[in-house]
Structures are given as structure tokens and as C-alpha cells.
Amino acid sequence: MARIVCVGEGMLELSRRGDDWQLGYGGDTLNTAIHLVRLGHDVAYLTALGADPFSQEMKAKWTAEGLDTSLVLTHPTRHAGLYAIDTDAAGERSFTYWRDTSAAREMFALEGSEAASAEASEADLLYFSLITLAILPPEGRDHLLALTERARKVAFDGNYRPRLWASQEEALATRNAAIAVADIGLPTLEDETALSNANDACEVAADWHRLGCRETLVKLGAEGALLPDGNVIEPERVLSPIDTSGAGDAFNAGYLSARLNGLSIDESARAGHALAGWTIMRPGAIPPAGS
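User: That's the sequence. What structure does it adopt?
Assistant: C-alpha cells below.
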């Protein structure tokens, strides 16, 4: 079985349920990691949480899902980040974050980080995102990018969140450095348009290929995904989403799982659409298994 290590930030999630709020967890690379576990893969998550009860309860829930939490480091004074998510009548989401001093931001400065990084470098697939890089200080970004150079295979999602960056130029330069070490690229057209002013998916694909990514899938939301051969694979059904949170993360998991299992790019894109479709018809970024 292939060993996967996902790197990023897992946060406490407040999601609206009628007039009330429910506490759960989420985060872009964490969402993908949980889906990959449910698809039968051996997955570890590299991050940092606090020593507080909320952090430890969240870690216990990840372990109960089957996620390997041996690479989850503990910060002695910081806590897990928090976000609240609300959705409109069309299932589109909006977020409010409290993450500026989260433990994950210092994951590569903590005791045990060198050993965790060494183990992560031995994985068959290392997966991270532009959000992962955004939350890290410059030295942490350098550490992660150096780690990718030792990994056997690297997958990178270009999730762009402007509020996490000091400038668009900084985000673009960091994104370009990550693309250069990626074997599989999973950008979203909407993010790429905002970050690099790309006009269409073909321009995004060409840009990522030029920068060194070997296999790029450009996610187009409900319109499907642009494959490396220029074809677009659309979802099998047109859905009316309940909650679009985590749709791209679920697509990534379905796609990567299928590729690791030896399926073609076309078949893997269909698997990604199927998992994303399942996710958006249920509330929350990581709907309960079997729901």
C-alpha cells in the first residue's frame, strides 16, 4: 500500500445548523487526507496542534477516522485555528477565520519536526497546498519546499486565499516555487484567475507545465476539469449543492486515490468528480462517512 503524507493545518470548524452552530474540524489538506483514509490508503498528517483540550479532542477524532497522527506535533502554548462557515441558498460558502496564532504556523520550528520531516520524505506521495505555504513563516516555507525535493512524488493544490498573504506578488512567487517541485498539480481556475490573471484553463495548464509540473488537472467547478491532453471531463450529473465546502479537496482525494491505484487520468478525474459530488450534497467540509 502506498504511504501518503499530507501537510497543512487542521482547524476547528463551526458550521451553521439551522439557528445553531456545530463544532467539527476541517482544513483543505486535512479534508483530502480524511477522504484518502476512507478510500483505503495509509495516510499520515504532518501539522501541529496545541496541548489544549480542543486540539487533543480533534486529534483523537482524526485517529478514530484511521488517520496516522504520529506526525502531529504539539505546541506548548499555541492552540488550533478556528473558522466559521456559512452557506447561502445555493450552497455557496463564506468563511470567517481565527488562525493568526495557530500552532500549525510553527510546525517546522517545534521539537520533533526534523524527525517528522525525515519520515515524511520517505512517503510515496507528499501532498500540500498553497494554503499550507501561506500559514508558514518564510523559514517554514523553505523547510517544506526542501522537504519536497527529497520526496518520491509530490502533489500540490494551488489554493489561493488573498487574506493569508502580504501581497499578491509574494503569493505568486511562492506558488511558482511549489509548482516547480510538483509531479501532480491541482489548481482551480477561479484561484488562478485571481492570482495570476489567467484568462482560461488552457492558459493555467500551460503556465503550470512551463513552470515544471508534469501532470496538471485544472478544476473548473461544476463545469468539470481540464486534463493534460486538453479534454474536459465533466461530472456525470448536474447537482444542486447543499454545501460546496471541501468540494475541491474531495476531488483531489478521489483523483489521487485513483492514480495511486493505477487508473488512467480520465478515470481518475471521474473518480474525483464522484467524490466531490457526494461531498457537496451533504453539510460540512468532511461529511460523516456513510451519511
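The two ends are 27 Å apart (CA to CA).
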